[in-house]
Write a structure and sequence with these properties.
This protein is an alpha/beta fold. The chain contains 12 helices and 23 strands. Helix 2 runs parallel beside helix 9 (about 295-310), helix 5 (about 145-155) packs across helix 6 and helix 8 (about 250-270) runs parallel beside helix 9. It is globular. The structure holds ligand LLP. Ligand LLP binds near residues 118, 281 and 282. Ligand LLP binds near residues 280, 324 and 363. GO terms for molecular function: diaminopimelate decarboxylase activity; pyridoxal phosphate binding. Homodimer. Pathway: Amino-acid biosynthesis; L-lysine biosynthesis via DAP pathway; L-lysine from DL-2,6-diaminopimelate: step 1/1.
């Protein structure tokens, strides 16, 4: 995200330092090198020049499954799940945020690797339950859950509903009472921190739609109301401060304020709430400029912060949970495109058009996000060419990678891959211009299989019933 995209910072919020450097404009030393921080774990360039993932040549993947396609490294996905689970250990819970990318195969992998799942819509809930995630390991989020979503979640027995508003406290309480259950709930609070990221994905400053503000006393009032309702069991407080965050300072402020509320609750009601959830939002490397922390270090930092704050407030340390989405799935996938046309603007840049675009990755257009890109169907000895990788949609903002160096001998038919597209690309994909959303192909140990198939024109026309 460019610096210019950042808002000046709202009032009532502590603005934290930006944890991200601006993209470099110098060409990399070796255009054929693949930075392991940006690429999925099993991606390799073979001595012969092409790129493989999970032991499979990307040219074979393109031939078999077509382009554009999201290619997901299942080995890497599972390894990241285990890294997060092991880093947080048995006395904490990791909820994968399904909004980053969800399908049945992913639900099964999460289940097998011992993670829980955060869902934020009826569709995500149906996917989770349909693929066998035990309901008690599911948390339901959302700032405007429908009555139907609430009923399905309570009816299924989800382990946690994160309440977001005063109205919802009443709705969930009535639903649970009617269904004869005591629903475990957390309250989502906004702690007044603006994690320095793009405005649309920063969520804990107070001038935004999510949660109950701590500063205005809304959160304390919400606790009072929930505690009076027999059909709700208040287990803890939730805070999510934003996304693509590199700096732990935001979590520190958030934990301090959440623990402060726990202390207030103890003082006012004589109860120590047993859980806190610090949300997701941990950043990943989209380019070599980004340097994200490892799950182990993140877990240690969060535990230390929470323990310290609880000691200060003379509270028992509550059970901690976190909700990483991007940090698990983001780096595990790349989007494979075929180059169609090139347009050279002498002395400026070359526009490289690929067979997808803003319909499969809206993040560049929406957040000014930065991505990397590489020629993957062969290596090239050619000098670097300043390029802009663009899609095939009918608008000039249809940019996939704003500034990238690609080999000057690039031509139609070459395959390009854009790494770190596992999160918020397929899940935010659209049918703009009646584009068909690409498949997700999972690779593991030399085998590839489609886990989400490519849309067909029939799929599109099926909805058009006029
Ligand atoms: N928990 C809650 C309550 C959230 O709202 C989110 C993300 C997460 C966890 C997971 O955050 P993550 O670890 O993936 O950053 N479309 C944007 C991101 C929106 C995130 C919304 N909430 C993007 O493409 O960057």
């Amino acid at each position: 995200m460019s610096r210019s995209a950042h808002p000046a910072g709202p009032r009532h919020a502590d603005v934290l330092p930006e944890g991200r450097s601006a993209g470099s404009t110098a060409p990399p030393a070796d255009l054929n090198a693949l930075d392991p921080r940006v690429w999925a774990q099993t991606v390799r360039r073979t001595p012969e020049g092409a790129v493989t993932v999970g032991g499979i040549d990307v040219r074979k993947l393109a031939h078999e499954f077509g382009t554009p396609a999201y290619v997901l490294d299942e080995t890497d996905f599972r390894a990241r799940c285990r890294a997060w689970r092991d880093a947080f250990g048995a006395d904490a819970d990791v909820f994968y945020a399904g909004k980053a990318f969800l399908c049945r195969a992913v639900v099964r992998w999460l289940h097998e690797e011992g993670l829980n799942l955060d869902v934020c819509s009826g569709g995500e809930l149906a996917t989770a339950l349909g693929a066998g995630m035990p309901a008690e390991r599911i948390a339901l989020h959302g700032n405007n859950k429908s009555q139907d979503e609430i009923e399905r979640a309570v009816g299924a027995g989800v382990g946690r509903i994160v309440l977001d508003s005063f109205q919802e406290i009443v709705r969930v309480a009535h639903t649970a009472a009617r269904l004869g259950v005591r629903q475990r709930v957390q309250l989502r609070v906004t702690v007044g921190v603006e994690a320095h990221t793009h405005e649309f994905i920063a969520t804990a400053h107070e001038d935004q739609k999510f949660g109950l503000a701590l500063a205005e006393g809304q959160a304390a009032e919400a606790v009072r109301r929930v505690l009076q309702l027999d059909s709700l069991e208040l287990t803890g407080i939730h805070s999510h401060i934003g996304s693509q965050i590199f700096d732990m300072a935001g979590f520190e402020v958030s934990a301090r304020r959440v623990v402060g509320l726990l202390a207030e609750v103890r003082d006012e009601h004589g109860i120590e709430l047993p859980e806190i959830d610090l949300g997701g939002g941990l950043g990943i490397a989209y380019t070599s400029e980004d340097d994200p922390a490892e799950p182990h270090d993140i877990a240690k930092a969060l535990r230390d912060i929470v323990t310290r704050e609880c000691e200060g407030a003379a509270l028992a340390v509550p059970r901690l949970s976190v909700e990483p989405g991007r940090a698990i799935v983001g780096p595990t996938a790349f989007t494979l495109y075929e180059v169609g046309t090139l347009k050279e603007l002498e002395g400026l840049r070359t526009y490289v058009s690929v067979d997808g675009g803003m319909s499969d990755n809206i993040r560049t257009a929406l957040y000014d996000a930065e991505y990397s890109v590489a020629l993957v169907s062969r290596s090239s000895p050619a000098p670097p060419m300043l390029s802009r990788v663009v899609g095939k949609h009918c608008e000039s903002g249809d940019i996939v990678v704003r500034d990238a160096f690609l080999p000057a001998d690039l031509g139609p038919g070459d395959l390009l891959a854009v790494p770190a597209t596992g999160a918020y690309c397929r899940s935010m994909a659209s049918n703009y211009n009646h584009a068909l959303r690409p498949p997700v192909v999972a690779v593991r140990d030399g085998a590839a299989r489609v886990i989400v198939r490519r849309e067909t024109e029939e799929d599109l026309l099926r909805l058009d019933v006029g």
